[in-house]
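Project channel, design review

CF: Before we commit to the Clostridium puniceum constructs, I'd like one complete example in the thread so the newer folks can see what an input/output pair looks like. Taking Transposase IS66 family protein.
RD: sounds good, go ahead.
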Amino acid sequence: MERDISLLYDRLHKEIYNSRVPQADEMPVCVSKDGRPAGAKSYMWIYRTGKMHNAAPIVLYEYQKIRNSSHPREFLKNYSGTVVTDGYQVYHSLEEEREDLRIAVCWSHARRRFANVVKALGKEKAKGTLANDALKQIAAIYKVEGLLSEISSEERQKQRQLTVKTLVEAFFAWVKQHQNAVLPKSETGKGFTYCLNQEKYLKVFQRMEMFRLTIMLTKEVFVASASEDVTGILLIQLMELRPVLLFIVLQKQQKQII
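CF: and here is what came back for Transposase IS66 family protein:
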C-alpha cells in the first residue's frame, strides 16, 4: 500500500513539473503529536498546478517541522521554469542558486494588506484612502489582464506591452510617490513596502507568454478542502517514506475571488 501511494505521489509530482507555471506556498500549522510540546508551530508546504494547466488541477501538501529552503529546494530540484510564490525570501534564494528557475510573486499577496485596511474600515469609510486607491489600481490590472485571457499567448504578450505594462508601471510610480505619506508600520505602509521589495518579481508575468495573472489557490484549497468544491481527498501518513504527505487531486476548479 505504501509503495503504491508513493508511486502515485511521485507521478503527481512529475505532473506538477510538466504543468505550466506551477504555484508554491507554505502556511503554519499546529501539531499536537510529533514529539514536541503541544501547539508547536510546523509548516505545510503546498505545491499545485497553475492556471495554464489544461487537465484537472493537482495539489500536493508536504508537512515539515521547519520553514527553511531545503524543502522547496528538494521538491523543485528537477523543475525548470517559472514558479508563482509569495514574497518569502527562501524562494528568491532558490532563484539565485539556479539559472533555470524563475520566481514570479503573486499579486494577491501584494493586495492583501490594502484589502485588510478596507475591510477594517468598511467600504464607505475607506473611500479616498491610499489603501483603497491601491486596491483600485490593482483591480484595474486584473481587469485588463482578464480581458486578455482568451486570446493566444503571443497576442496576449503584445497586448500586455500596450496596456497592462502601463498600468503596472503607473502603480509602482504611485506607490513610490506616496510611500512616505503613511507610517511604515501601518498596514498600508507595510503594503507599500511589500510591493516595492517585490517589484522585480511582481513584474515577471509581463514577460511571459504562457502566464496568466491570477490569484494563488494554494492556501484557499487547504481551507476549502472539506467543501463541496473539492473531491478526491486522501490523507496518508508515511513516516518511513516521507514525514507526512497530504495530497489532493481536484476534480472541480476552485471559485476564484479577486
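RD: helpful, thanks. The chain is about 45% helix and 15% strand.
CF: Strands lie at 23-31, 40-48, 58-64, 81-85, 101-105, 233-236, 244-249.
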